[in-house]
Structures are given as structure tokens and as C-alpha cells.
Automatic annotation (TrEMBL):
Record-level Gene Ontology MF annotations: isomerase activity
Name of the protein in its database record: Xylose isomerase
Taxonomic source organism: Hymenobacter koreensis
Subunit-structure text: Homotetramer.
Gene3D superfamilies: Divalent-metal-dependent TIM barrel enzymes
Enzymatic reactions: alpha-D-xylose = alpha-D-xylulofuranose
């Protein structure tokens, strides 16, 4: 990506992306994502609420531990940080508009480069918030959620809210305050906390109980500030098990839900779940979705995937229709996401260096989710998927099974039932049939 700044913009050669249907062979068109198409009673755009990730798409350089950057953005040549941030934002909103993305998400340091001066950082961010507000008004694009990057700076090498040094924690608070102010000013619908380094490397130097209490106090303090200043949206916690920190406190959905419950945060917080984080925790994404949905805390998702051969967070664009169809079954049965949307927290590969590569990646991801939504809705409405599951638990729908669910049976009652009724029948779970059913509808 090395187009020069000037009359020729970074994405000027890319047309507005349109829906052309499944038969189209145009690589710069949607085949499945038709924003107005009604599925399960709502337009696709309401089920999916797509968002662009400011950090990967407009800050990701393609660098890795073994090589220098390969994504060379034109704004990187700007010496002035505000001019550089404005040029980047111009390109970002051009991209979002041409792709028809209704939302975007950002970390504070994605929007404008920070220094080590708190007041200067606040001024820089406020300047760019004013510019972003103009861009939002011009395009109609909204902010799905904002957040603060409390993991990249070296001061956060031992965490931010869980850091053993109060001075570092205070710096984290300063960043979160500014990021919340920016989110409120831009009409952001949610605010996300990702504890990228909230955890520990070894217990030898860690007071884990105290750190988790500090984390909870930090979240309460941030939440109270936001509410006092008019923020009415939802706060999200994004689980991740490890990497960069060996033991992260927000390991998976179940761990986060337990934390929120223990520290009285359930009324204000829900979960933002990421595919690659789920697999790093040893779960499927479907599992994490179901855990959150069962708790009434399925707020938002980050769309990506990992690599089956790499045990780390590769943040690739999603391409597994089977996996996403199963995921959309969970989301549909839960009634949709609560407050959030589908943020493409994914990056094009190091050797994908053309401007259109970024479009191809997002088009593919949006089409994939749209196709999975259609397939999942058809499965729920036209197959015996629900019936099979209901039948599997039918013994709890009446008689002694129902009495057990209602707390009316003692352990002695269970013993007597088992003794009187002999060995239970072996009943198939019909797993292969159900797996074939997914394939039939996709």
C-alpha cells in the first residue's frame, strides 16, 4: 500500500462495493451480504452490525519478529502527528464508506500517536475526536465501541489495572478517562476493556488476589466516571487466555462471568468474544458464544480466526462457513448480540500488499457471515434441529424429571427411582446426523 497522498487517494481505484448476488464473479462485490434482506424478521444489517477495526486496517504494518514492515501507508511520511492522523482518518472513512461498513472501532493510540505527556495526549485525541465527528456526520458511519491501549507501552509490561506499581495504574486510568471521553463525544454505543497484560508471568512475585481486586476496583471506577458523564452504553470485557501474558485474568467467557459476578459488575458489563481467543483457550467459538448467551451476557464479537498449525493469535480473516453457521445458530437462538456487533479484528497477511487486498478480506468476511446467517435461519426453520434437541431432554419435561428440575426430589428419591426402574436405555446423541444437517444447509 504505497499510493502517494494527493489527488490520487489510497482507495480511489476501488469502486463502491455493491451486492450482486451469488452468481456474480466480480471479486469486488458482495455475493451474500445484502444489507436490506430480511432474515428471521430483521434486515441483515441489524443482525450483523459490521465494524472495521481501525488498528489492524490502518495501523498494521505487516512487520513480524523476523522482518520489517511491508504495509507502507502514505500517511507514514507525514512528520506532523496530527497531519498524519488526519490523513489516516481520511483513508479510513473512505474505506469504510466504499465497503458500506456502518461502524468502526478504535484504540486511542490508533487514532493518533501518543507521547509520554498525559496532557499532550489528551489534546491530540480531542483534536482527532473533533475531526472524527465531522467524518461521522459526513458519512453516517458510527462508532461501535472505543477503548484504550493499555498493553503496548513499556510501562504496562506488568499490566495496567493489575500493575504492582500504583503510578502505572494511574497512567492507565488517565488513558481510560480520555478514551471514555472520546467515546462519549463520538456517540460510541459501547466501551471495551481488553486486559492484554492483566495477568502474571510467575506467582513467585505476584499477589494474585490483590491484583484481581485492583482490576475490579479499576473497572468500577471507570464505569462510575462514564455513567456520571452521560455514557449509557454497555461495557464489554474481551476474554483471552494468554499471549502476551502467560496467565491472563480474563481467560475465557466462564472465567470473566465469574469475575463479573464476584465483583458486582454484571449490571453494566457484557462480553465481547473473539474467535481466535476462544480457540487459544481450548474452546470452540460456539462454546464461548453459548456460555455468554446462557448468562445473558452475549454483547459483541470480534471476527477472525487462528491458524491450525500455530498456537498464537494470528488474527486472520474468517473463512470457515461450517464454524460460522454453528455460531450463527447460537446467536439467532439468543436473539442476537446485545448492544454490540461484528468487528473485523483481523489483519491481512504480511505479503498482501495491495490496497484491494483489504477489500477482498472484508468482502469475504462479510459474505461469510451473511451466508452463515441465511443457513442458520434455514436450519432453525426448515429442519428437525430443534426437535432433536428437545427430544433429547424430554425426560425432564414432566414426571420425576420435571420434579427434579423444580427442586422437589431428594437424593433418596433419586435412589428409589433408579432402583425401581432398572438400567436406562441407551439413546443415541445423533451427532453425525446433525453434522450432516449443517452441511446440507450450507
Amino acid at each position: 500500500m504505497s499510493v502517494a497522498i494527493g489527488a490520487q487517494t489510497l482507495f480511489s481505484a476501488i469502486p463502491q462495493i455493491q451486492y450482486e448476488g451469488p452468481q456474480s464473479d466480480n471479486p469486488l462485490a458482495f455475493r451474500w451480504y445484502d444489507a436490506q434482506r430480511v432474515v428471521a424478521g430483521k434486515p441483515m444489517k441489524e443482525w450483523l452490525r459490521f465494524a472495521g477495526a481501525y488498528w489492524h486496517s490502518f495501523n498494521g504494518s505487516g512487520a513480524d519478529p523476523f522482518g520489517e514492515p511491508t504495509h507502507l501507508f502514505p500517511w507514514d511520511t507525514e512528520a506532523d502527528p496530527i497531519a498524519r492522523a488526519r490523513a489516516k482518518m481520511d483513508a479510513a472513512f473512505e474505506f469504510l464508506t466504499k465497503l458500506g461498513l456502518p461502524y468502526y472501532c478504535f484504540h486511542d493510540v490508533d487514532v493518533v500517536d501518543y507521547t509520554n505527556d498525559v496532557a499532550d495526549n489528551e489534546r491530540r485525541l480531542q483534536t482527532m475526536v473533533a475531526y472524527a465527528k465531522e467524518k461521522q456526520q459526513e458519512t453516517g458511519i458510527k462508532l461501535l465501541w472505543g477503548t484504550a491501549n493499555l498493553f503496548s507501552h513499556r510501562r504496562y509490561m506488568n499490566g495496567a489495572a493489575t500493575n504492582p506499581d500504583f503510578h502505572v495504574l494511574a497512567h492507565g486510568g488517565a488513558q481510560v478517562k480520555a478514551a471514555i471521553d472520546a467515546t462519549i463525544a463520538l456517540g460510541g454505543e459501547n466501551y471495551v476493556f481488553w486486559g492484554g497484560r492483566e495477568g502474571y508471568m510467575t506467582l513467585l512475585n505476584t499477589d494474585m488476589k490483590r491484583e484481581q481486586e485492583h482490576f475490579a476496583r479499576f473497572l468500577h471506577t471507570a464505569k462510575d466516571y462514564a455513567r456520571r458523564n452521560g455514557f449509557t452504553g454497555t461495557f464489554f470485557i474481551e476474554p483471552k487466555p494468554m499471549e502476551p501474558t502467560k496467565h491472563q485474568y480474563d481467560y475465557d467467557a466462564a472465567t470473566v462471568i465469574g469475575f463479573l459476578r464476584q465483583y458486582d459488575l454484571l449490571d453494566d458489563f457484557k462480553l465481547n468474544l473473539e474467535v481466535n481467543h476462544a480457540t487459544l483457550a481450548g474452546h470452540t467459538f460456539q462454546h464461548e458464544l453459548q456460555v455468554a448467551a446462557d448468562a445473558g451476557l452475549l454483547g459483541s464479537i470480534d471476527a477472525n480466526r487462528g491458524d491450525y498449525q500455530n498456537g498464537w493469535d494470528t488474527d486472520q480473516f474468517p473463512n470457515n462457513l461450517y464454524e460460522l453457521t454453528e455460531s450463527m445458530l447460537v446467536i439467532l437462538e439468543a436473539g442476537g448480540l446485545q448492544g454490540g456487533g461484528i468487528n473485523f479484528d483481523a489483519k491481512i497477511r504480511r505479503n498482501s500488499t495491495d490496497a484491494q487486498d483489504l477489500f477482498h478480506a472484508h468482502i469475504g468476511g462479510m459474505d461469510l457471515f451473511a451466508r452463515a446467517l441465511v443457513a442458520a435461519d434455514a436450519i432453525l426453520e426448515k429442519s428437525d434441529y430443534r426437535q432433536i434437541r428437545r427430544q433429547r431432554y424430554a425426560s425432564f419435561d414432566g414426571g420425576p424429571g420435571q420434579a427434579f428440575e423444580q427442586g422437589q426430589l431428594s437424593l433418596e428419591d433419586l435412589r428409589d427411582f433408579a432402583a425401581q426402574n432398572g438400567e436406562p436405555a441407551v439413546v443415541s446423541g445423533r451427532q453425525e446426523y446433525l453434522e450432516n444437517l449443517i452441511n446440507r444447509f450450507i
